[in-house]
Each structure stands twice: as structure tokens, then as C-alpha cells.
Input
Amino acid sequence: MTIIEYEDKYRDDLIFMVLQAKDALGKVPTINEDLLDVNVNYFQKGDKFWLAVDGNDRVVGSIGFSTLQDSQEVRLHRLYVKASNKRQGIGSQLLTYVEEYLRSIRKSSVSVHLGEFKYYFESYSFYQKHGYKEYKPRYMMKFL
Output
């Protein structure tokens, strides 16, 4: 598994992976509008988006962030791991990669908005394991 910066050639594979991940959570899969044009929704705003790709050049994970206006805080988006690749450390590797990048550009904190607990219960324990603390319902933060 390799972490790479998003490229347009992976768009459809990324969207398919996210839809599969949502389906595995028992959610009705829907497309996240920001993923239809990652360049406009992330890179052109000065933000970033990465993919985890396997040895077959297929997307097995993703993560991005957006900077909160007039702050040193960023919000994570779209940390997904393909259902068949969960529990292999891919999510942890993606999160660690992004946190290291954020430290290098002097961001002070990172937050995440979590979905409904009944669907995203794994996310709550995942972020806690990585040092994130809940500061209001469905929001967690970590100081870098």
C-alpha cells in the first residue's frame, strides 16, 4: 500500500471505494459532492487530498482536509478504507501521514465531524485511539 496525492485518474475508483465503504456500514450509499471534483474542492482552495493505493493501483483508502477560515485548524474529510481492507492499518497510516504533513505546515489542531454513531461507531474508537477528544457531540479534535 502506498499513499499518494490525489490524481484525477483515480476519481471513479475513489467514488466506488467510498460507496462500498458506506454500504458495508449499512448506510444507503450516496455520492459525496466534493469527490466529484477534488481539484476544485480541495487543491484550488489550498487544501489536500490523498489516496491509499494497493499493488494493483486500486484505491483502498482516502483522506483529505480543509482549512477552517482564519485559523490554524483543519477539518479532516473522507477518511475511508475499503471494507475488504479494514483492520490492516491503512486508516492509521493515512491519519498519521496527514498529521505529519499538517505539523510540517504549522497547523495547530485537527478536527473531525463524525457521522451518526449507529453507522460510524468504529470511527469514534478509531479517533480516540489516535488521541482525539470529543469536544461536542459528533466532533473530535487533536492538538498537534
Q: What stands out?
A: The chain has one domain: 2-143. The chain has four helices and seven strands.
